[in-house]
Write a structure and sequence with these properties.
With 367 residues, the chain is an alpha+beta fold. It folds into two domains: 33-172, no CATH class; 175-359, 3-Layer(aba) Sandwich (Protein Transport Mog1p, Chain A). The protein is built from ten helices and 16 strands. The longest helix has 20 residues, at 153-172.
Length: 367
């Protein structure tokens, strides 16, 4: 999933609506749906800008959208108040139903800021349901509103991706589905931790080459691969797109081979991007793209986080790949991405948690 390094001062997550109810039910619906509350004519004028913000395509290798926008009118808002992702959009001066609705839910001071500040976007978490995000997009007139959406499109996408990742994390990270014995082993031997779901196997554990490979459903039509590779005594100079490509291709050539060693995995040159992100308060390069075999024939999407850890002087590469030719892949690659985001070094783990995980190690366990 595409990430962005955000200057928090630009995007304001404010709490001007009424306080949420602690007994709220969880928000419902699909993660990739955003309900846009707008009048039909105004929506048509803003549709291209909204699509540019939210319906960003990724190649899996078929093009798939990160989010799909669905318009509803303001008089239907009660029907979608329980949904996960909602955007309310209208210019303040149009006198449309949605414009009037916005004026009933925000006070005069907020209306002035929506009117005058082209970086001001009003967002509220848990407004009508738990783990919900509602955003109000408005400006003085239609032209300025379109400009505001396009100017802030990266921030808008990032914010909805982060709340989606948060919801997915809460559903994925469950102790009863966690292989703590593997987690404890990796923490003890290598000084880092990643969440290991119950159906992942430790396929490769190479201490000499600093490589750990977790696999799910090998040999099936929905395989998932996660690897962690690290370089000791490294420097931040490795943090560039060319080095990431070189390191990843070297690793996959050695470890991601077909059974008879006649082919191996490589990055597809024309289908990857590298962007800067904040990963656990570290400057990190995030790469997303497609993998393929060097002789062609199969492929799929991958995501990759590469960062330098100052304390250990290590360069870490966290990588997740998917092979699922018969399935819609957007949500599957997001699940892998969220697992990668669980990565922590020993310094980021409490002493009690580290001791508990190490106590779970069973040296005779069959991984």
């Amino acid at each position: 999933m595409k990430k962005f390094l955000i200057v928090l001062a630009i995007f304001s997550s404010l709490f001007f609506f009424n306080g949420c109810n602690s007994s709220q039910k969880p928000a419902t619906g699909f993660e990739d749906e955003i309900y846009v509350v707008a009048d039909s004519l105004e929506f048509e004028e803003l549709k291209v800008a909204l699509q540019a913000a939210f319906e960003v395509e990724i190649n899996t290798p078929m093009p798939e959208k990160l989010f799909i926008i669905k318009r509803v009118s303001s008089n239907q808002i009660e029907k979608v108040k329980n949904k996960k992702n909602i955007v309310i959009v209208a210019p303040l001066n149009s006198d449309s139903y949605t414009s009037q609705y916005i004026k009933t839910i925000v006070d005069n001071e907020i209306q002035k800021r929506l009117d005058s500040e082209n970086d001001f976007i009003l967002s509220k978490y848990d407004l009508w349901a738990k783990n919900q995000l509602v955003t109000v997009l408005s400006a003085k007139n239609m032209q300025e509103l379109e400009f505001k959406i396009l100017k802030n499109k990266d921030n808008l996408l990032y914010t909805y991706q982060k709340i989606s990742d948060k919801r997915l994390k809460e559903s994925l990270y469950a102790p009863r589905y966690e292989r703590q014995a593997i987690e404890g082993l990796l923490l003890r031997d290598y000084g880092w931790l990643i969440y290991v779901q119950a159906d992942y196997k430790l396929a490769k554990n190479d201490s000499e080459k600093n490589f750990v490979w977790l696999r799910r459903s090998p040999g099936s039509d929905m395989e998932r691969w996660i690897f962690v590779h690290w370089i000791d005594n490294a420097t931040p100079e490795y943090l560039n797109a060319d080095s990431i490509k070189s390191i990843r291709n070297r690793i996959t050539k050695e470890f991601y081979q077909v059974r008879d060693d006649s082919a191996y995995v490589v990055m597809v040159d024309s289908f990857y991007t590298t962007t800067e992100v904040n990963f656990n308060e570290r400057y990190t390069l995030y790469t997303q793209g497609l993998w393929d075999l060097n002789i062609k024939g199969m492929g799929g999407p991958f995501v990759n986080y590469t960062f330098y850890d100052e304390k250990s002087k290590r360069l870490y590469m966290l990588d997740g790949s998917l092979f699922a030719p018969k399935y819609y892949k957007r949500n599957l690659i997001q699940q892998i991405d969220v697992i990668l985001q669980s990565f922590l070094t020993r310094d980021e783990i409490s002493k009690d948690r580290a001791e508990d995980l190490i106590d779970e190690i069973d040296e005779s366990i069959k991984y």
